[in-house]
Structures are given as C-alpha cells and as structure tokens.
Amino acid sequence: MPPIKGLFGDRISRELFLTGIIVGYGGIAGVVVGVPLVAYLLTPLFKPSPRLWRDVGAVSQFKIGTTTEVRYSDPSALRWAGTTSRAGAWLRRDSQSGFTAYSIYCTHLGCPVHWIQSTGLFLCPCHGSAFYSTGAVAAGPAELPLVKLPVRVRGGRVQIQTKPIPVIG
Amino acid sequence: MSVISDFEQPNVTQSESRPLELPGPVGAVYNWLDDRLGIDAVIRPILVHPVPRSTNWFNVLGSATLTAFIFQVVTGVFLALVYVPAPNAAYQSLQWITDKSLFGHLIRGIHYWGASAMLLLIFAHTARVFLTGSYKYPRELNWLLGVGLLFSTILMGFTGQLLVWNQDSYWAIVVGAEQAARTPVIGPWLAQLLVAGQVVGGATLTHFFAIHVFIVPGLMFALIGGHLYLVIYQGISEWPEPSNIVDPKTYKQRYHELLEDGIPFFPDAMAKDALFALFAGVVVILLAVFFGGAPLGHKADPANYVTNPRPFWFLIWYFALLAEIPASVENIVIIGFPAVIMLWMLALPFYANKGERAPSKRPWAVGSVLIAALMTAVLCYEGYQSPWAPRFDANGNLLSVPTAVVSRLKGSQAKAGAQLFHSAGCIACHMVDNVGGIRGPALDDVFQQYSLPRFYQQVAAGGKGASYQYMPAFGTILDATKMAELAAFLKQVPRVERTVHNNALHAAKPARGPVAAGSTLTPLQRRVLNRCIAEGGAHLATCLIAGNRHP
After folding, report:
1. Is A62 within a domain?
2. Which of A77, B132, B150, B389 has CB atoms 3.0–4.6 Å from A81's, for a disulfide?
C-alpha cells in the first residue's frame, strides 16, 4: 500500500491510518455513550434524601419515662415503594417536654434494634448488641451509641426529622 | 481445517475425522446441513477431541456447574414471566407464582435448590482445580475466568435472595450496604450506589433485579464462553502424577504425547459428565418437589421490627464471623478479608504456575483447603446456633421460666424472682432448666460458683467476658430488692443435666471495679455503685439501695 502524508509531515502507512480511525471512532463512540451511562448510574449520589420534619403523634400520647415505636413515611420514597416507604424510630419521653428519638439501625451492621421495656434495653437480633435506654452501648459487638434523630415539639405534636440509614447517608 | 490447535490435530483418529457417511435421506439431510454448518470440519472434531485417559469422576464438577447454570437460566426466565420487580408488588407476585400458577411452586423450588447446587458445585470445582494444580501452565487464564465465574455465582446468590423482597432481603441489603460503607474514602458512596439511594426503597429492588437477570448473567455467558473455549484449546488437564513436574518448556510436548493414547471427549468422557449432572438434577428436582422454593417469610417492612434477619445459607458463616471477631479488627476483616481472598485467587496462577501438581506433593495446598473447609463448617454451625443472640419465642416475646421450675419454688420472694428472670430479660441470655439463651452461662448452679456479693456485683455492674460475651449493667434497671428476688429464685433452681452447648460460668470475668461509663447511671450513681462494689461483702445490697435512692 502506498504510504500517505500525515498531518505533521510524517508518513504513516494506510494500515496504521485505518486502524487509528477504527480505534479512534470506537473510542469517541464509547465516550459519547459511556459518559451519560455512568452519570445515570451515579444519580443516587446527586439526589440526597430530603430531611423533613414528620409528625409522629401528640405529646400527650407518650408517657414520661417510656420508649415507644413511632412510624412515619420516608420522604424520598418513590410512588411504587410499597411498604418500604415506611420508616420508623424509637421515641423516648424523658421529661415533660424532653424527647429523644433513636434510629432503629444498630450501629454494628444496621439490623433493626428492638426496645424491650421490661429489660430496659434495646436489643439487636443479628449479632446481639444491646443498648441502654440512653442509647449507650450495653453489650457488643456494637461500639457506638445508637444514632439520635432530631426531635421537636410544635403545637402539642411531636415531630421527628427524617434521616437516611446513618452510615451511608 | 480445524479450530483445534495443531498439536492436538493428529490425535483425532482416522475414523473420527473421516466425514460421516449416513445412508438414505438422513444422509442427504446431514450432507446438506454439513455443507452449510461445517459439522465435519469444525463441530465433530470439537465433540470427539481426545482427552487424557486419566480423566475421572473428579472432572465432572465443572460440567455439572454448567448444567446447574442452564437450569437457573431456564427457570429464571420462566419466573421473570410473572415476577414484578417493584417493591409494592414483588412479594405478592411471588405469592401468586407459588400458590396460584401451575407448577410455580416447583419452578421456584428448582431455582432455589438449583442455586444452592450451583454454589456447592462451583466451590467443589474450584477446590478440585486448585488441589490438582490444574490452574498451572498453560491454563492460568482459564483459572482467572473461573474466578470471575465463582464471584459472579456468589453475587447471583446474594442478589437472588434480595428479590424475594421479604424481611431477610431488606435487612441483607442494609447489612451489605453498611459493610460497603466501611471501605476507606469511597465507602458511603459505594453504599449509596448499592442501595440506589440513601434508604432502601423504590429504586433499590429494580437495581438488584437488573443486576440479577441482565448484568451478571450476561457477564457469566461471556465468561463461560471463554472458559469452554480455553478448555478445548488447551485441553482438559491430565490427572496429576507426583513425578510429572509442570515446566512451560516441555509441558505441551508431553501433553501432546499423552493424547496419542487419549479417549474421545464424546461419548467416552462425556458419559460421566452426563451421569453426574443427571444425578445432581434429580436431587435438585426431588428437593424442589418436597421443599419448594425459598421461604417467603414476611414482606419487607422497615417499620416491623419483630424480625430475626439471617442471610442465605452460603453466607451464614460470614454472618457468624462478623459476630465473633473483636470490634478492633472489624473494619480490617470486612474490607480486607474479601479483598485478600480475591487478590490471592487472581495472583495464584502467576506466582505458582510451575512445578508439582499432585496433591500428595503440595501439603500447603491440601492443608489450606482442609482448614478453610473446617473453619467454614464451624462458622456455619455457630451461625445457625447464633449463641451471641438473645433468644425469644416465635413471636419475638421473652421466654418464660418453665412451669416445672416455677411450681416447685418456695416463698413469694423466689416466685417474684422467677417472674423477674423472665420480664427483665435474664432468660434471653441465660438458661434455667435448659430454657433460655446461651449468650451467657446457664444459671442453675450460679451460687456454687458465685458468692452473693459477687452475684450482686455482676448483675449491677455487668462484666466483660471473652469477645461478645459481656453483660449489660443492670444497676439502674433493677434495684437491690429485685436483685435479692433474683438471687432467691436462682438459689432454688434445680441443677440440671445440660442438653445444649453452653458457656462456662467461670469464663465471665467480673467487671473490674468501675462501672462502665456510658451506662444509664449518673456520675454520682456510678461513684456510689463503685464504692459499694469496692466495699463488697454482705452490705452490698443495702449499699446499692442507698445508692439508688440517693443519687
């Protein structure tokens, strides 16, 4: 094959030129399709869950010194999320106006902790971590206290600010 | 012309390479097809290519894995005809498949037991290839493709469990994401990509569905294609003899000579493959008929906490490992352990591709497989026992002290103690009369080991034993009156023959003086309690009452 003149005066072979076209065009096509695909996959990183205040009940329905299960709907849920659009937390009424809300996710690996009133402990069913009513670790393998969710009282109603799964959100 | 490499070509005997001559119209049809498909030129030589005479029943594991894969693809496609990969319908669509559709129960069963079979077979196949040194020259790249298939199969098992969309699925995603989140630097991002958001919800299930039915199977088809191509191109490895050392300079020549005395793959060697695959298939179908598919359990619901999440059986050993390792090495194990296994498997054929293949000459290889198998077995046992987990009844309520024990108690104090042993949750971790949890020791003989003050100290301040075996401090949850009731009860509990594995009582070390910071005690209460414990003796109970009353 006769060599053809290159851009900068170099002489490259026809085979090399054609190979360059195949690889180059292929590469460009790959980038043009690939960049939007990767960006599409990364959507979750750019759409953080909104953090909203959710009403969980009237102040009067919680007894002082007790810890109760409260439920609310997850603010980021898609319309087809079904039961997974539900979310929950443990709400403790410490005093007349003092409330503490604990995330249900165990700080070990995320299984749901369960408050057992008569034992005064939160227990995790997976690896058996236990937490005191203050959220402090009572038994491992967890090392960190339960995560607290912001809680406030507005017009006699208790409100919890939603939070994604603690370690990943 | 042949795709078989040149050194194998002469081994195909004359009769096998000669064009097939069939009589009459069958022959005419065959010739017509052969002219267009190249059966005699390409397909038949592949089918009848010679394999070493030493191939045996250990060589059937790979083809059985492939058979299981085909079963999975077929049943998976049929399940996908009905299954709805949306969180508000997935569980219900599986209920419909199981209960309403014709043979849906069986098809789910085959998919479930076939998955288990495929995992077992691919583990066994990997171990066989490792033990016989078949990954050595010139088959290094086929080992790498196999490693890709092994990890793809594990990923299929994990994602498949999630599609049931029950409580186990939901919490497996959360636990998986929390582990991914421990990766240095990019951890939280990885976790968010895994669950497709910051909470498990609408987008999560469709992601895992696409991974399970499109992405990973597509990858596996490609890997299997490459794997089979290399099996045919390099030939199946001969059964290793201690005297035969793999040397890249001489191996192909020797293998070529071995094939002169080879047997055709079809039908001689393939008969064993077919028989074993048939056996495995029959076992899978029988299990599917009698036990059906993966248990549906309860629908995924993050607001229903009465749940006891457990992974699919092939990950239960890892679940146990995560419960039993000390917290200080947790991050290293969660990230390092899978990474080290994967890097080792990828590096293996490059640093050890020469030398001995025979297991009898490779004690380290045999030893490491045996140790890995033993450790996995022990961890599986531990995982199913879950000795670290508090025990509850089937409804998630605290267990009760057996009536046989309660009916024999004397005095109201002991009876109150029995009630307390149940309601304060002691029974979740401690057994009496073989009922209760096994995280802590059984307590029927506690007062043969502990003095009364030592008992009060343990209950009030808790104590750390080995790894997970430590006890919460009940100092503010139970006052001294209640502790005395518990003591009165435990003194009357009859000593029983243990029917269940249990921790030794003496293994629990007493808390060293100071009550753990972070418990519910105020600093003053903690000081009082510590002083009581330090003084000890018979006054401890009175001291504790004073401490509780006057914080």
Report:
1. yes
2. A77
**A83 lies in the same domain as A122:** yes
Confirm whether A127 is domain-assigned: yes
**Per residue, what are the HEC states of B478-542?**
CCHHHHHHHHHHHHHCCCCCCCCCCCCHHHCCCCCCCCCCCCCCCHHHHHHHHHHHHHCHHHHHH
Report, as an integer, the average pLDDT of A88-104. Answer: 92
Number of domains in chain A: 2
- How confident is the model at residue A167, as a pLDDT? 76
A60 with A134, same domain?
A: yes
Contact B327 A140 (CB under 8 A): yes
ipTM of this complex: 0.89
Tell whether A31 and A103 lie within a shared domain. no
Is A128 close to B388, i.e. CB distance below 8 A?
yes
Interface membership of A120 toward B (CB under 8 Å): yes
Instruction: State the pLDDT confidence band at A119, using cuts at 50, 70 and 90.
Output: confident
State residue B500's pLDDT score. Answer: 53
Instruction: Tell me: do A62 and A141 sit in the same domain.
Output: yes
Q: pLDDT category, B472, cuts 50, 70, 90?
A: confident
Distance between CA B377 and CA B70 in Å, rounded?
28
Nearest-angstrom CA–CA distance, B124 and B139:
18
Q: Which domain holds residue A23?
A: 4-46
Q: What is the pLDDT of residue B17?
A: 57
* Residue A169 lies inside a defined structural domain of this protein: no
What is the CATH number for A120? 2.102.10.10
Among residues of chain B, what percentage have pLDDT more than 90? 57
**A120 & A73 share domain:** yes
Computed over every residue of chain B, the mean pLDDT equals: 86
Is residue A167 situated within a structural domain? no
Across the interface, of B198, B305, B472, the residue whose CB is closest to A69 is B305
Could you tell me if A65 and A142 lie in one domain?
Answer: yes
Bridge partners of A161, per DSSP, are A53
Q: Would you call B202 and A114 a contact, using CB atoms and an 8 Å cutoff?
A: no
Q: Looking at chain B from residue 424 to 483, which residues have their Cβ under 8 Å from any Cβ of chain A?
A: 424-425, 428, 439, 462, 467-468, 470-474, 476-477
Give residue B12's pLDDT: 46
Predicted local confidence at residue B545, as pLDDT: 52
